[in-house]
Every structure is written in C-alpha cells, then in structure tokens.
Amino acid sequence: MTTTSDARREACAVAARQAGTTPDVAAAGMFGSQLMPRITSGQWYRNAAGQWVQR
Questions:
Q1: Dist CA 50 CA 16 (whole Å)
Q2: What residues form DSSP beta bridges with 52?
Q3: Which residues of the chain have a pLDDT value below 70?
Q4: How much is the pLDDT for 48?
Q5: How far, in Å, are 3, 4, 27, 46, 50 from residue 43 at the CA level?
Q6: CB neighbour class for 31 (10 Å; exposed up to 12, middle 13-18, buried from 19)
Q7: I need a labelling partner for 47 at 20 to 30 A (CA). Which of 8, 9, 20, 41 fits?
Q8: Is the pTM of this model over 0.70?
Q9: 29 with 15: CB under 8 angstroms?
Q10: Do the bridges between strand 44-46 and strand 52-54 make them parallel or antiparallel, or are there none, so unpaired?
Q11: CA angle 19, 20, 24 (to 5 degrees)
C-alpha cells in the first residue's frame, strides 16, 4: 500500500531526475508552485527548516 508521503517522495524524485537536480530542490519547487498558493492567510505550515510558521 502506497501512502501519501511515499507518493509525494516518488513524485519529487521523478521531478528531480527530469530536472537534473536533487529531490530536496524539486520538493521546494513543488511546494512553492503548487502548495503555497493553497495556504490561506492565518494557516500554519512547516517550512524547509521544519519550523511551524503562520502565513
């Protein structure tokens, strides 16, 4: 059974291979382009350093 985090990790790995970069860089790009726009003002999320921050 594939979990959401496994699927996300695999998607980042595929994107990294296609872009010729690391999975961490690909994940940061996905976060900035796909997830950050969905986070509304006042919501909390975890940044790259693992800290909880409020938008």
A1: 21
A2: 46
A3: 1-2
A4: 77
A5: 24, 21, 20, 10, 16
A6: middle
A7: 20
A8: no
A9: yes
A10: antiparallel
A11: 85
